[in-house]
Amino acid sequence: MIRFGAMNKIWSILFFVMIFLLTGCYNYTQGESNICEVHQLKMKKIIVPIHYGLPAYADCFAIYPNGGDYDLGGCDVGTIKSCVIFRCKECRVGWVKGNCSNH
Hints:
Elements: H1 4-23, E1 26-27, E2 44-52, H2 58-63, E3 71-74, E4 82-87, H3 89-97
Parallel strand pairs: 1-4, 2-3
Antiparallel strand pairs: 2-4
């Protein structure tokens, strides 16, 4: 019998696979540490949109590198619209308190 926790993990994996197949999502977490370099906390994987062009809040990425609600795609607009990144809960608190989400 499959336990409830195992079912949640299976659904999470299926969700990420579906997103990759349907949206052309890029995985920035592959081969990267899931420990925040600023706060030394374990981070969770999340899916965020990619924003192309000049970053309005580049300083927020420098101070809270793992707190964003989007990722930077560069100046050349690509076909990939979303990606998987790691998010640190303490970086996210700093990102929100620093008004970095008003893009």
